[in-house]
Design brief:
Blueprint: E1 6-9, E2 20-24, E3 28-37, E4 40-51, E5 60-63, E6 65-70, E7 75-79, H1 89-99, H2 103-118, H3 122-129, H4 132-156, H5 160-168, E8 171-175, H6 180-183, E9 198-203, H7 219-222, E10 226-229, H8 231-244, H9 246-264, H10 270-278, H11 281-307, E11 313-318, E12 325-337, E13 342-349, E14 369-375, E15 381-384, E16 390-392, E17 396-400, E18 403-409, E19 414-420
Parallel strand pairs: 13-14
Antiparallel strand pairs: 1-2, 1-5, 2-3, 3-4, 4-7, 6-7, 8-9, 9-10, 11-12, 11-16, 12-13, 14-15, 17-18, 18-19
Length: about 425
């Protein structure tokens, strides 16, 4: 990476605002620390340096930034985390190895699609005849692909209109040169989180996913072809297209090869064409690698999503020992409804140690009340009510997936109150 680029330690990526570093020449990194400016977290250079050598470069990952201030006195940048590329080669390699065992199934899958290219009734006939040889192998590959589709959608958390559209239309265009009125102050229509960066336009012939025959689109999707999305969702649209239309795209590749064979020798028998294509190991291996790479990319996204859940450190102070502060990492969060009509916010202890069991309290009030539930790494749980001896620092506004909670305090004790469901994550 050239001088002037920004990097972050991979081990720091589990922090919401990790320190970032700027490459300074060939051997140094200058540190940039986060600070708050009008409610936005920016980064400012400080007089702290670290070594930048071939031996330690593998522990860093390049990150995108936007320059906000750059003069002789200071440089201020914004860490564009949502635009950060996913780099996890180990996860890719692991996934590729795990799916290599499906090569025989995939070759029959391709044999099926070559046969469809040679005879447009082939798929319909094998389904009518329930030909187990072909159908069992096609089903095997389709099930793996469907599973990856589901994983990607769980990570992306798109609105149904986009996922349905991408799943219906096999082709798309990206337009990145957008007029100001289409992107200024507008959020991605897919995730509602990041600013608009790309226009996605869907097109092509909808088809039956079983027989690959053309069909009419669902009326609800017929007009849904144009979306303004962020850079991250645009990349995921491209990936989702590959798995949602995998069979169709593989069929197109097979049809091209069949057309080339027929063009070179119009009299060549269909069986000869089929056997010649199945004997082309380099081509088959490349198709298999293409499909497995898409699967692996989704595995990587899912892995990264699990590893980089935004975290926030919440301090609880034990009143029996005022100097002792316990830190809890909000990296695993959920909202549950208990039998006592109370909501609980789950999070993991930062240091993995069990909480003080003396603080265990259950709410028994008839009306809904709210309390923290701390699930320790050890598997033991304790429930910390605002009325028990731990003192919750206040005021503190905490927004986590599925719940917005406000820490408030009166003259007697702090309280935790639910404000509204949300998928945002903020704190101040």
């Amino acid at each position: 990476m050239p001088s002037g680029e920004f990097v972050v330690m991979k081990s720091d990526l589990n922090e919401e605002y990790p320190p970032i570093w700027r490459i300074d020449g060939k051997t140094l990194l200058q540190k940039y620390e986060p600070f708050d400016q009008n409610g936005k977290t920016l980064y400012r250079n400080i007089s702290t340096y670290s070594g930048w050598t071939p031996q330690n470069r593998h522990i860093y990952q390049q990150v995108p930034v936007k320059f906000r201030v750059q003069n002789r006195l200071e440089t201020i940048v914004e860490f564009m985390r949502t635009e950060m590329p996913v780099e996890d080669q180990e996860m890719i390699e692991k996934s590729m190895k795990e799916t290599a065992k499906y090569q025989d199934n995939f070759e029959v899958y391709i044999q099926t699609l070559i046969s469809q290219a040679l005879d447009s009734n082939f798929l319909t006939e094998i389904f009518q005849e329930q030909d187990d040889y072909f159908l069992s192998n096609v089903k095997c590959v389709d099930e793996i692909t469907e599973e990856r589709k589901g994983r990607l959608l769980r990570v992306a958390q798109w609105k149904p209109s986009l996922s349905n559209s991408v799943g219906t239309w096999p082709c798309f265009n990206f337009i990145t040169d957008l007029p100001a009125d289409e992107k200024t102050g507008k959020l991605c229509v897919a995730c509602d989180k990041a600013p608009v960066a790309v226009r996605v336009q869907m097109y092509g012939q909808p088809y039956n996913s079983t027989t690959l025959e053309g069909c009419q689109p669902d009326p609800k999707v017929a007009s849904q072809k144009d979306f303004l999305v962020c850079a991250v969702c645009a990349g995921r649209v491209k990936l989702y297209n590959k798995v949602a239309h995998q069979k169709y795209l593989m069929y197109i590749e097979c049809a091209k090869r069949v057309a080339d064979k027929r063009l070179s020798d119009p009299k060549k028998d269909t069986t000869v064409i089929l056997n010649e294509l199945l004997a082309d190991e380099a081509w088959l291996n490349q198709l298999f690698k293409t499909v497995r790479t898409s699967w692996a990319e989704i595995d990587k996204l899912e892995h990264q999503a699990k590893q980089t859940v935004p975290s926030r450190i919440l301090m609880l102070k034990d009143s029996s020992s005022p100097t002792e502060c316990r830190h809890f990492n909000l990296s695993a969060v959920g909202l549950v409804h208990t039998s006592s009509v109370a909501w609980a916010l789950f999070f993991l202890c930062h240091n993995g140690k069990p909480c003080d069991s003396n603080s265990a309290r259950y709410s028994t009030t008839p009306s809904p009340s709210f309390f923290l539930s701390v699930q320790c790494h050890s598997g033991r749980a304790c429930y910390i009510d605002g009325a028990s001896h731990p003192i919750l620092t206040a005021p503190f506004i905490l927004t986590v997936p599925f719940v917005v909670a406000r820490m408030t305090s009166d003259h007697k004790r702090p309280r935790l109150a639910l404000l509204a469901p949300t998928t945002d994550y903020k704190s101040r």
